[in-house]
Amino acid sequence: MQLLLIHSDYIEYEVKKSTPVAEQIENSFKKGRLDEALTAFMAVESTDEANPRDVAEKAVTEIKKTASQVNTDNVMLYPYAHLSSDLSSPKVAVSVMKDIENSLIDSFNVKRAPFGWYKSFKISCKGHPLSELSRTINPESESCGEVVDTEEEVVSEALKAESTAKSYWKVLTPDGVLHDVDDFNLNDHENLATFVDHEISKSRAVEKVPPHVELMRRLEIADYEPGSDSGNMRYYPKGRLIKSLLERYVLDSSAREGAMEVETPLMYDMNHPTLKKYLDRFPARQYSIESDKRQMFLRFAACFGQFLMSHDMTISHHNLPMKMVELTRYSFRKEQRGELVGLRRLRAFTMPDMHTMCEDMDQAVEQFGRQYQMSIDVLKDVGIDVSDYEVAIRLTRDFYEENKEFITALAKKVNKPVLVEMWEKRFFYFVLKFEFNFVDALKKASALSTVQIDVENAERYDIKYIDQAGEAKRPVVLHCSPSGAIERCIYSLLEKASMKAEGGEVPMLPVWLSPTQVRIIPIAERHMEFAEKIASRLQCRADIDDREETVGKKIRNAGQEWVPYVVVVGDRETESGNINVTVREESRPKKPSKVEMSVDELNSRIIAETAGMPQGHLPLAQKLSMRPRFI
C-alpha cells in the first residue's frame, strides 16, 4: 500500500462522476469536509491481496502514530489510485479501506471519501516538517506496523551530489543582465515564477491527477499497465500511431543535421570499469538485474553504447563534428513512486539521444547553439511553442564568465527571461546544459529538449580523433535530445489542450498527429457510397462513422475525439459533389465553423497543413462499426 499523509488546515471533496468500479453511496457521502485533519491518501496494491488484513493493521498503526505526532483527532481516508500503477482489485481496495475506517473510528473522528468516483478536492497543507509524509506499507514484513520508504536501489554518486550541490539561482534577461532570483520581479512572468518555485523546492510528487491522465484514456492513447512495473505504460493503436509519427519526425530532424542512426544494447555490465565510473556521474536511479551471475543494469540513455562504439572507431578531424543518434525504445530509470503519474514521468520511456563529437570547445559551443535552435524548431513542429515552456540554463561560474555573450544570446533567441542555475565547481560531467521545461496545469515542470557539453566522457571511454598534425586528441562531446522523451511530448500536448479548453478554446492535436484527420458522417444508408468515394479521394487518415446512431451523436463523438475535419454528407452533398466541413481549429465551444468546399480543396488543405511531416495510415478500421473499444 502507498500512503501519503497530509496534515491540513482543512480537506474537502465533492464527487463528480462515477467510474465502472464505483461503490454505491448515499447523497450524504457525495460531499465531505474535515478541519484540522490528517488526510491519508492511499492506494491499495496488488501485492496487498496476499494479506489485506495485515496491510490494514499496519496502515492503522502508521496513521495513529502520525496523528499523535501532529496532535489531531480528525482523520480523512481518501482513496487515491494514482499513487500507484500496480493496484489491487476494487473489491480488495474497498475492503482494506473499510477495515482501516472501522479500526480508527473508536479513537478518531473519521471520514472516508468514496471509492471509484472522480472527485474534486481542496486541501490546505500546514507546511510544518511532519505535514507531508509518504509511506510504503510492506505486506510481507513480519513486524506489525513496519514501514519501508523505498526499496533497495542503486543510487549514483552524482545523484547524491545533486542533493547536496550548492546552487546559485539567477534570472538572465535578454539584455544580458544576470539578476539574483530573489531580486527579480516575477509578477509579469507567471509561468517562469511557477518554474522557479518548482526547481528551487525540488518538489516532484503530485498531489492530484493531472488532466492529461483522463485525456490519454478517453482518447484511447495510453493507459496504466497493472501487469508491469510502475511507470510502464500500454499504448493503444491511436497512441502507437502518435508515438511512431513523433519518433520518425525527430529521427528525420536529426538526420537533416547529419546524424547517423545506430542501435545499441538495452543492458550493460555494472562492473565494466568504464561504465561503473560513468554510472556514478549520471544523476539517475538504475534498474539492476542479474544475468549469468553478472550484475547488469538497464540503460537510462544511449550514451554507453554510442561511447563504446566511438571508442572502437577511427575518427579524423575531417569527420568532425560527428553525430550519432539512437531512438531508445526503451530507456529505463527507477523514478520514485510518488512522482509516477500518467505520461509525465515514467520508468520506461522513448528518448531520442544524439551525441556529437567536436574538435574543441569552440566547435562544441557552436554546435550547442545550432542544436538549441534545432530543439526550438522541433518542438514548434510538434505543437509546443516557445510560450509553452521555460528555459533553464545550468552551468559552472567559470564557463559563464568565459562565454557571457553566448549565454545571453540563448536568452535573446527565446526573447524572454530564463532561469540560470550556477555552480562554483562542477558536480557533473557537463559544464553547460539547457532544458526546455513545460509547465502543466498542476504547476509542475517537466523537461523536454536538452543539450549538454560533456567534458569527461571522451577521456573516460578513451575516445580519440586524429587532428591535422596527425596527433591523437580528445573530442568534446555534446549530448542532445531534440524533443525530450516522446511520451513527454504527448503529455505536454494533452496538458496544453486541456489548459486551452479551460480558457474557452477548442482542444485538439496538430493535424499531422491526429489519429483521424477527417471523419465522414453519412446521414443515411443511401449516402454511404458517396462517403466511401470521398474517403478514397482524400490522401489522409479519413474514416467513416457508419454506426446505427443519430447524426447528432456521431458529430458529438467526433468532437470528443478531437477530429480536425468533420464532413456530414446527405442528399444535397451527394447531388452537388461539394461538402460542408466543420473545421475544428476555427471553431469555438458550441460555435462550430463550417466551410463549404470541394473534396479536392479539403485534400489540398490537409496536404498543405501536414507538408514535411511523417505520414501514417489509419490505426484502426476505417468504418467505426468495425472498431473495438479499448477503454
Automatic annotation (TrEMBL):
Its EC number is 6.1.1.3. The keyword Metal-binding applies. CDD domains: ThrRS_anticodon. This is Threonine--tRNA ligase. It catalyses: tRNA(Thr) + L-threonine + ATP = L-threonyl-tRNA(Thr) + AMP + diphosphate + H(+). It comes from the Archaea. Homodimer. Keywords: Aminoacyl-tRNA synthetase, ATP-binding, Cytoplasm, Ligase, Metal-binding, Nucleotide-binding, Protein biosynthesis, RNA-binding, tRNA-binding, Zinc. The keyword Membrane does not apply. GO terms for molecular function: aminoacyl-tRNA deacylase activity; ATP binding; threonine-tRNA ligase activity; tRNA binding; zinc ion binding. Binds 1 zinc ion per subunit. Belongs to the class-II aminoacyl-tRNA synthetase family. Archaea-specific ThrRS editing domain subfamily. Its cofactor is Zn(2+). One of its GO terms (biological process) is threonyl-tRNA aminoacylation. Residues 211-510 form the Aminoacyl-transfer RNA synthetases class-II family profile domain. One of its GO terms (cellular component) is cytoplasm. Pfam families: HGTP_anticodon, tRNA-synt_2b, tRNA-Thr_ED. Zn(2+) binds at residues 303, 355, 479.
